[in-house]
Amino acid sequence: MSFKSILKNKLMVLLILGIAQLSIFASNPYEFPVKTIFIDPGHGGNDSGASRTYDFLSYKLDEKDITLKLANKVSFILQSRYPDINVYQTRIIDEYLSLQERSEVCYLTPLPPQTSCIYISLHVNASTNSSANGFEVFTKLPPSEKKIILFDDQTPKQNIPFFSTESNDELNEDMYEKSIEIAHDIEESISESFPSATDRGVKNDNLYVLNVARAPGVLIEVAFISNEDEAKQLIDDNYLNQMALAISDGISKSL
Ligand SMILES: [Zn+2]
Asked: Where are the domains of the chain?
């Protein structure tokens, strides 16, 4: 083989490697297919979340039990629908997890190469005003108000920010945009499935679990435990099945 053809072959190899590198280090890593979903049932153990007692119930209704039932249903639907996606729950029993524990698992879990993940936290609302009702979907604050340091010494090397050529600021923007997209997809899906429920909209808040998860994510408040009519729904398994399906459909749109 002549020197020229060796050089040509080498250049070809370098070109192919370069293209491979470009695809591995894509600019927006949140555009990679979602292959990991974290479902976080809010509260647990000695943290019962919001709770109420009602004349029609012989027991105290706790937010932690409703969120776990709902999470089990959402996980089951998503895992059945997408066998190639890893669906994890932050808890599968009635146990206490700190806010740190329940969301750091999201960025500490190594992802399959060139894939992304999303984080969905499930909650039930409460108000001192017993007529307050409806559902709402929260995302983290926009990066102009709160930036997150997306990786540190603990972050597995194959995780999201390492796929990207973007700066921390750009990653924050892209992660926020993906979160908003997921929030609107879920809001729309719940609204379609429960046309008579009050749609309180998509909101931003400085929510610790979403900040620590370091991934696109939302926190859903499905209904008010403090509203008697909605409390009656929250103990109805058919209602929870329908809500789980609506949430799963919303998530599916964002995949
Ligand atoms: Zn809660």
From this structure: 33-254
175 CA to centre of ligand 1 in angstroms: 23
Taking 3-state DSSP, the helix, strand and coil percentages for the chain, each rounded to the nearest 5, stand at 45, 20, 35
pTM: 0.89
Q: How far does the centroid of ligand 1 lie from the alpha carbon of residue 220, in Å?
A: 9
One-letter amino acid of 86: N
CATH number for the segment(s) 33-254: 3.40.630.40
> Rounded to whole angstroms, how far apart are CA atoms 70 and 233?
12
Per-residue tens of pLDDT for the chain, all 255 residues? 554 555 566 555 544 444 444 445 568 989 999 999 999 999 999 999 999 999 999 999 999 999 999 999 999 999 999 999 999 999 999 999 999 999 988 888 988 888 999 999 999 999 999 999 999 999 999 999 999 888 777 777 767 666 788 888 999 999 999 999 999 999 999 999 999 999 999 999 999 999 989 999 999 999 999 999 999 999 999 999 999 999 999 999 999
**For the chain, first and last CA: distance in Å?**
49
| Å from CA of 87 to ligand 1 middle | 21
Q: Give the Å distance between the CA of 25 and the centre of ligand 1.
A: 37
